[in-house]
């Protein structure tokens, strides 16, 4: 038994006969770089989270909703009548909850005139940054800054031909309409507005539903409407309100967004009488039963690891098969020397190859 010699059935290749392929090394390097890029992207997605949007049935039963209004109207305040009316025929005198200030009517700079801005759903971070609750200020009497009996200032008294209407009105959460009319024209009143005082040219600084967030931009904010040819025009807005909840890192903003359509009726073409309208501003509103939930979510660490391993494994598998298929194609079409594995050995070349 001592004379028996053992031998290795599968001997290892000696190092002097091994030759690494530069082309294969380059493809491996590119694959590794791509894997690092994929891993970096997945880590960014894991820490940054993802945006999940879905429709849900409104979880809260709300009987009332708040309408936030801030408008300039080219009429004296004493002739304005503001009411809220809904499907139940509940007729609420909204004037008692709003504030009225006499002012000189003007259209602020950068206001869209006879136009409505493009309706775009705001980003989550934008909403969370702008969702600063506020309340409307108290009423200010502009006449207190002027002395009508002072001869020096009497000539400089402003013409108070407009009214600043602002505040919040609580209405039933039903389909309804906010009506801004001249006294004596929509409902019975002891006051009859003179014809020459009726002009419903207006500027909407704020129109929103729900909690008052003045920094959140709404479709009608910063818009103005007027008709020089027919001051007694009826302006009608149709708004469709969708409750929207924004959630991120424990913070939650419960607000409403809305789409809007608008048209107007003129007295001189008899279109107003055909629909039994009077001059005024009519804001019709309707509330959707579904709520949009916009939430920033993150995968659990276990889900992230499983996802990352699965993606990287798939990339390696695809890269290996692409390498094999490309190599086979080059060998078939161009010959063995074009193989990605081919590496000429200068030391083994014979005399005829020199």
UniProtKB/TrEMBL annotation:
One of its GO terms (biological process) is retrograde vesicle-mediated transport, Golgi to endoplasmic reticulum. It is found in: Endoplasmic reticulum membrane; Endoplasmic reticulum-Golgi intermediate compartment membrane; Golgi apparatus membrane; Membrane. Keywords: Endoplasmic reticulum, ER-Golgi transport, Golgi apparatus, Membrane, Transmembrane, Transmembrane helix, Transport. Its main location: endoplasmic reticulum. InterPro entries: Erv (IPR045888), Erv_C (IPR012936), Erv_N (IPR039542). Pfam families: COPIIcoated_ERV, ERGIC_N. One of its GO terms (cellular component) is COPII-coated ER to Golgi transport vesicle. The keyword Transmembrane helix applies. It is a multi-pass membrane protein. The chain crosses the membrane at residues 29-47, 304-326. Residues 156-321 form the Endoplasmic reticulum vesicle transporter C-terminal domain. Residues 4-92 form the Endoplasmic reticulum vesicle transporter N-terminal domain. Belongs to the ERGIC family. Plays a role in transport between endoplasmic reticulum and Golgi. This is Endoplasmic reticulum-Golgi intermediate compartment protein. It comes from Maudiozyma barnettii.
